Recover the amino acids of this structure.
């Protein structure tokens, strides 16, 4: 199935929220929407999506994310005086969506996250009183967006007021959600980012869009780079990414943001030809997971259990032996608990437990679905969306990916050096930090105070 | 826009010509189209020099000629072990789609059927020069394996490798604009179908 250039790109801005472009093919190419377990009552957290199915692949439990994903970023259109009205309108719209669709992949998951520009411009006084503070980092829990060593100089550090994440197995539900919120006219949309998740879809979608290197993607792969990334043991347990759970954040006297979290959004372009033509299978395993990990040729799903977790010492040892680091191993030095941890609600999280909640998705946007660069061809990439307890916690993970380990070790990489594995074929175009309030304060947080 | 005929200095080429021993297999040559008389003369000289069959390409993407000693033949190298690398390159500089490169390599490792070994530039470990096999295709009597991760002068190329009369032969092409991987494989298919076997005389 081939697309014309016109079909591959979205339409004009006005129709972009409801347009599906190339992503219409997801429903045609996916065998069917996976069957989903029923969800319980609405969780107080916005970022928790219930009803996710778990399958077993290669003996490893894998969580099946929703098929369709969309992120809409925006600036607030209302002025300060209208903020309470805007708050009521947005909350009503979100409640209507919840009444219409269960907040699961079978229905629609909506997460509204707010950027530092919103808090500083619209509710500065309230923000000063209620902003969560990261005790571990001794910094605010929501930090200005920063660049990382492997980012190219042209990476845009964005300053959106808000980001809305929509997730569903139904493209129609996602489009309805986006249009419902847009109809309120409380936001000026700055970007629309679309994509998909599903085993086998990356190759099929890339071929349909004539992306260079599409034929090199293995059949059945969940990601363009050929491996599975949603191993259940690599995803944080239900409440671990909450601001309060691990005790990283001081929530202040009113605990306004309790049951909230932090969200980072970035767009990363992937050079498939560079990956598949320069890294043989073993080297792809070495750099995606850890050096000298032996798995049968063609394996896509690799176990990521707590007992497999790397330590800073093992990553450093591997680096000195193989002159390379594994993406997963390096990040695990920060993203996994390094010791048993008793949470504030009495839950014991064992050493090796993953902290982040991942919500990233494959995309053919270049870099965004809208606005469209007419000269840009569809491109393999990922809209990386991840929930961590705080900005600093995300920063630690991202720095570890660049060889800056949490124990202070700095592996001597040059930017984009081949030994950094994934980084050699990834190019981050945009990134921004957001705070995700709890469901009860998701609409224009702090405006009512 | 400037058109440049480049002689890319691939210093690693000579080192990559050596290979390992192995057993012969018995494939018959394809029913060959005809390479040009200008090309045939050079390939015949090469076959005579190494005392082994060689393959003359009857088709390479324009403007590559396949003529040994031509302006686009940037590498014409034969090693002591009789292995050779013949390379043709064309490069055009310019912004966006105006720029591009075509680069085709033909190699043989006489008396060797094993995939030759190369050195990893980062770790100095011995690695296969042609790896990540992605299936085989039959072109007449040639049964060629498609390799996607290749080294030295074939780095970032897609390559076909096959065996004939106890020797290992390869044909590779660079995956670079204006070509994508899929297009390179289509070109390689056509190039491989066009090969004319030339025996030493």
């Amino acid at each position: 199935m081939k697309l014309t250039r016109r079909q591959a790109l979205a339409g004009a801005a006005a129709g972009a929220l409801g347009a599906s472009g190339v992503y219409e093919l997801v429903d045609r190419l996916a065998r069917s929407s996976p069957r989903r377990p029923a969800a319980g009552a609405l969780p107080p957290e916005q970022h928790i999506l219930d009803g996710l199915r778990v399958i077993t692949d290669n003996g490893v439990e894998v969580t099946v994310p929703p098929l369709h994903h969309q992120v809409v970023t925006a600036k607030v259109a209302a002025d300060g005086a209208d903020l309470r009205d805007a708050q009521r309108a947005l909350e009503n719209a979100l409640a209507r969506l919840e009444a219409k669709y269960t907040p699961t992949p079978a229905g629609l998951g909506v997460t509204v996250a707010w950027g530092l520009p919103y808090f500083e411009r619209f509710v500065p006084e309230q923000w000063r009183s209620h902003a969560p503070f990261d005790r571990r980092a001794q910094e605010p829990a929501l930090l200005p967006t920063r660049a990382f060593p492997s980012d190219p100089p042209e990476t845009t550090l964005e300053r959106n007021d808000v980001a809305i994440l929509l997730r569903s197995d139904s493209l129609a539900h996602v489009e309805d959600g986006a249009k419902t919120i847009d109809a309120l006219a409380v936001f000026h949309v700055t970007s629309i980012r679309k994509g998909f998740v599903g085993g086998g879809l990356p190759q099929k979608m890339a071929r349909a869009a004539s992306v260079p290197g599409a034929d090199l993607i293995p059949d059945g792969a969940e990601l363009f780079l050929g491996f599975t990334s949603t191993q259940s043991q690599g995803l944080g347990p239900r409440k671990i990414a909450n601001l309060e759970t691990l005790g990283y954040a001081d929530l202040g006297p009113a605990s306004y943001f309790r049951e909230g979290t932090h969200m980072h959004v970035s767009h990363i372009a992937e050079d498939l030809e560079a990956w598949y033509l320069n890294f043989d299978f073993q080297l792809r395993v070495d750099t995606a997971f850890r050096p000298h990990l032996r798995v049968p040729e063609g394996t896509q799903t690799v176990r990521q259990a707590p007992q497999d977790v790397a330590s800073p010492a093992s990553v450093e040892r591997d680096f000195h032996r193989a002159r390379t680091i594994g993406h997963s191993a390096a990040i695990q030095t920060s993203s996994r608990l390094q010791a048993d941890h008793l949470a504030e609600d009495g839950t014991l999280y064992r050493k090796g437990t993953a902290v982040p909640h991942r919500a990233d998705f494959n995309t053919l946007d270049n870099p965004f679905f809208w606005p469209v660069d007419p000269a840009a061809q569809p491109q393999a990439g990922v809209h990386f969306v991840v929930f961590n307890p705080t900005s600093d916690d995300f920063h630690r993970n991202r720095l570890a990916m660049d060889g800056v380990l949490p124990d202070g070790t700095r592996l001597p990489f040059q930017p984009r050096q081949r030994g950094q594995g994934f980084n050699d074929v990834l190019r981050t175009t945009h990134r921004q930090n957001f705070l995700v309030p709890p469901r009860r304060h998701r609409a224009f947080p702090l405006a009512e105070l | 826009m400037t058109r440049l005929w480049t002689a890319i200095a691939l210093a690693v080429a000579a080192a990559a010509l050596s290979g390992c021993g192995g057993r012969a297999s018995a494939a018959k040559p394809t029913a060959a189209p005809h390479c040009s008389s200008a090309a045939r003369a050079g390939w015949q000289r090469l076959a005579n020099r190494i005392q082994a069959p060689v393959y003359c390409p009857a088709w390479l993407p324009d403007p590559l000629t396949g003529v040994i000693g031509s302006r686009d033949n940037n590498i014409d190298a034969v090693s002591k072990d009789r292995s050779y690398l013949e390379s043709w390159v064309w490069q055009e500089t310019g912004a966006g789609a105006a720029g591009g490169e075509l680069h085709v390599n033909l190699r043989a490792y006489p008396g060797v059927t094993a995939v030759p070994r190369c050195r990893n530039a980062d770790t100095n470990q011995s690695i296969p020069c042609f790896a990540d096999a992605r299936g085989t295709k039959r072109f007449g009597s040639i049964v060629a394996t498609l390799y996607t991760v290749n080294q030295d002068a074939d780095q970032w190329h897609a390559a076909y490798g096959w065996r004939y009369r106890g020797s290992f032969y390869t044909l590779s092409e660079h995956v670079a604009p204006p070509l994508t991987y899929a297009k390179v494989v289509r070109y390689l298919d056509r190039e491989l179908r066009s090969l004319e076997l030339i025996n030493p005389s």
Q: What stands out?
A: The first strand of chain B starts at residue 2 and ends at 4. Residues 1-30 of chain B have pLDDT under 50 and may be disordered.
